[in-house]
Amino acid sequence: MKLNLSMRECAAILAAATMGFQLTAQDLEKIVPQASAPQEKAESSAKGQDKTPVEAIQKGVNFLTDMQKPDGSWCNHPGITGLACIALHSSGKTQHPAIVAEAVQKGRKYILSMAKKDGSIWLGPEGGARDYPVYTTSICLSSLAIMGNPADEEIMRGARKYLQSCQLTKENPNNPTPEDSDVFGGFSYGNSGPVHADLSNTQWALEALHLTEYLDREPKSRNPEDAKKADLAWSNALKFVSRLQNLPESNDQTWVVKDPKDPQRGGFVYVSPDKMRRGPGGKDNTEKSLRTYGSMTYAGLKSMIYAKLSKDDPRVKAAVEWAEKNYTLDENPGIGEEGLYYYLQTFAKANAVMGKDMIMTPDGASHDWRQDLVKKLVSLQKPDGSWSNQVGKWMESVPELVTSYSLIALECATKTAAPY
Q1: How far apart are CA 84 and CA 74, in angstroms?
Q2: 10 Å Cβ neighbour count for 120?
Q3: Other Cβ atoms within 10 Å of 316 Cβ, number
Q4: Which of 90, 143, 224, 361 is the most buried (most CB within 10 A)?
Q5: Separation between Cα atoms, residue 389 and residue 112, nearest integer Å
Q6: CA–CA distance, 192 with 280 (Å, rounded to integer)
Q7: Cα separation of 314 and 316, whole Å?
């Protein structure tokens, strides 16, 4: 059979050869799928079948590998690079494995090159408004942990200690924070950003600390005090997270709803409303700051599970109840299309961590969240394999970022990714 090889297929064979892969006939069939099943492919096309999740993941993987910069980054940014590496590393049995492996390794090296002496991993002060140290270090540390190269352990230890030092507590070297503060135990953007702690920065930091917890436990721990410090960090984080939940039984903040029938009950806000009541020029932001919404509720739920709260804990049960009442994949509940893809990947991670396959909504319907999420993301994928949000808030107009979010969500849904 005469094969018309695409540039991608030629590159895959070349990459495999240069990286020392021994290609079998089966490997070639994966790289050049038309060699193995042209009739099957034609029949599928003729029937007009929708994309399968495997096909959607493959197209997304192709898009990301095509968009990688020569220096190994995506968008010249370590945070986006970290997310892209997670998405590619967790993509399962895709075509062109040598291209994917090479892209991941190039991305990994770029991330490592961004490590600073204090342990942070980011662009540095020269990055200006484009980067924040806590946010980016958290994502990069998670990426290194998921890629799991033993050679990166020292960099990971440094990043982990950096994040622990950034938690807003009495011991914080730059911003000592009393325990009665509503930001105690949380994480802010870091020295180059606002000091206030918020649930988005905190959930990324806690995810990174969760994925690298083993470094402070036996047999990896180098100091018996490390485990105690790790436990204290989780205890402090739980205080902060609980103070952002609309639940009067565990949150004594004045803004918390008191009516048990209030639709906000159990959900989470992004930041303490007292920190956002006044915006630029003294503008009153009370209504906006009190808003409970989907991505933050799933961020809070996931963080509570990381902090080892039982699923029977009233705070967990209240968050789950809010999520059930607001179950949707058509929008980020509470704020519409803003941050939709951030919401979808947080939704996927939280439900995967909870170990739930079905979600029961108040109308009695049972929803297979994995199936619903796959269907939604497949329908939103663009012809070039990317995803992006027409509402560009929080950088969701950037396809490299949003494609990474979408692949991570798909991989959680299809169980190709390790549980977060």
Answers
A1: 7
A2: 23
A3: 18
A4: 143
A5: 30
A6: 19
A7: 5
pLDDT at 377: 98
Structure tokens at 194: 């606002």
Contact indicator for 410, 56 with CB cutoff of 8 Å: yes
pTM: 0.85
Q: Is 288 exposed, middle or buried (0-12, 13-18, 19+ CB in 10 A)?
A: middle
pLDDT tens, position by position, 304-314: 999 999 999 99
133 neighbors 141 (Cβ within 8 angstroms): no
Please state, rounded to an integer, the average pLDDT across all residues of the chain. 85
CA-CA distances (angstroms) from residue 357 to 328, 333, 348?
Answer: 15, 20, 11
Higher pLDDT, 25 or 117: 117
Q: Which amino acid is located at 33 in the chain?
A: P
Residue where the block lists tokens 């100091």: 223
pLDDT for residue 94 is more than 70: yes
CA distance 395 to 76: 14
CB neighbour burial string for 190-221, b if at least 16 within 10 angstroms, e if fewer: bebbeebbbbbbbbbbbbbbbbbbebbeeeee
Question: C-alpha angle 165/169/172, rounded to 5°?
Answer: 40
Q: Distance between CA atoms of 414 and 53, rounded to whole angstroms? A: 8
AA identity, residue 396: E
